Amino acid sequence: MTLNSLENIQCRITKYSEDIYQALDKILDFIIPNWILLIRKHPSALSMDLGSIKGDFYMQHNKKRFEQVADFFAKMNFVVHLIDLRGFGFSGGPRGSQSIADLQLDVEVLIRQASKDLPLFLYGHAMGALVIISLLIRNPKLKISGVICTAPTLGFPLNRNIGPLKQFVIKNFGHYLEDLVINTNVNPTSLSKNNQHIQRIFEDRLVMPFLGVGMARSIYKTLPFIFKNSHQFQYPIMIFHGKQDTQSSYENSVQFINQVGSKDKHIKLFDEGYHELQHDEEFQSIKQQLSEWIKIRLESSMPFGILSQPRLLIGIPVQKNRRKLIIFLMLLLLAYFLTVLIKKGKFKRVQYPFVPILILYNKLIKKQLK
């Protein structure tokens, strides 16, 4: 199975019927990953999470989550392409157990379906923005005309952030607990000010309140990578974030936009904005600003072209730095020493902790030396 096969990403795509399509003079691609939406030019388009990249597609599944966004672009005469990523919506795969690298690979498969003759924009909401930004940091030379993010998951508010000890355990030992799921403790009433939308969230059986430890580990390892390498992000970017967002920290969005290497960077903060801005009154302002922002970038945009790279760089570069693990093991050894000393009550018996080491030396190392 080739990389370009959409079967690789265990996703569903629903195609518009041909009689709906109308030929238009100017075509523009958008991608919005998981929550990701992809838009080209179409008279009416509905969406949910992740957009595909080529052809006249739209996502019917769970469409209420992002139909306002898709409808906005559709009325601007852009075709909308949508897809569910693996493990999300109606796509196959374990729920909430994927790594960021897995989702980046899905986005790569989609990007390779993009028309070479059209400019390409990416739109990411929440974790979808995390997927897009981290992918583009590792691939700074793609011909992406612009990136739009709403409530990007670049950090967590203090009341949702876990302590440094738990983060250390998840980062360094989470791969042993990948099948374990944890409660995300997301309060649906804090996502939006729209009561009708909150009711739909409660009734939506595709909304999952759990997260795999493996995915949590991947997120916590990706976040520091993003800020450490933010200067490598060279694409035009526009971020919208609400200050009342209880899921993603707007302060981290401000930090990222200040550090990012791109000279074409903008951020709009809403004092009373919640996490899902597309369902609240702030969306009117977002539409107006996006309309102007896109028109300006279109003037200097170029076709996406053809990817010459056989593979995009995904995930985080492997580092063989084991210093944290060594420090952790040293602390455990120190605790062992202190426990033995306190229990025995005599320093003359300090030799007890060395017994396992001496046995190992006699049985293994000494024999090899002979």
Task: Give a verbal description of the structure.
With 370 residues, the chain is α/β, with parallel strands linked by helices. 36% of the residues lie in helices and 11% in strands. It folds into two domains: 295 residues, Alpha/Beta hydrolase fold, catalytic domain (Rossmann fold, 3-Layer(aba) Sandwich); 46 residues, no CATH class. It is built from ten helices and eleven strands. The strands form three sheets. Strands 2, 3, 5, 6, 7, 10 and 11 form a seven-stranded mixed β-sheet that branches. Helix 3 links the parallel strand 6 and strand 7. The chain is globular and about 75 Å long.
Concise description?
This protein is of the alpha/beta class. The chain has helices at 67-75, 100-111, 127-138, 164-173, 195-203, 213-228, 250-259, 282-300, 323-344, 355-369, and strands at 14-15, 29-31, 36-39, 57-58, 80-81, 120-125, 146-150, 181-183, 210-212, 237-242, 265-270.
